[in-house]
Amino acid sequence: KFNKIRALAISKLDLLVAPLQRLVMARAFDVRRWLEPSLVALCLRPSPLTLSEGRQLSMDDLISIMSTREAVR
Question: Which of 17, 24, 18 is nearest to 57 (CA)?
């Protein structure tokens, strides 16, 4: 029963949560289906991450996003 509630919550949050928060929650709650789309969205958005946003991410995610953004330029 808990898995059904979790799946419902995840599907509802898909549309409500911005990519940065989805990535943070994906890492915290092991929501693997959010990882790639969140990373891609953060890499492709026009504005760079702010200091506040960067502080919410792991060092690995931060470096991955920043290096991908640089490579795309």
Answer: 24
Task: Name the 3-class secondary structure at 22.
Answer: helix
Instruction: Name residues whose C-beta falls within 8 Å of residue 20's C-beta, 6 or more positions apart in sequence.
Output: 38, 42, 49, 53, 56, 57
Global pTM exceeds 0.70 = yes
Query: What's the domain count of the chain?
Result: 1
Q: Which two tokens stand for residue 60?
A: 């690995």
Q: What is the DSSP letter of 29?
A: H
Domain range spanning residue 50? Answer: 2-72
Q: Contact at 8 Å (CB) between 69 and 43?
A: yes
Q: What does the pLDDT look like over 37-62, one tens digit per residue?
A: 999 999 999 999 999 999 999 999 99
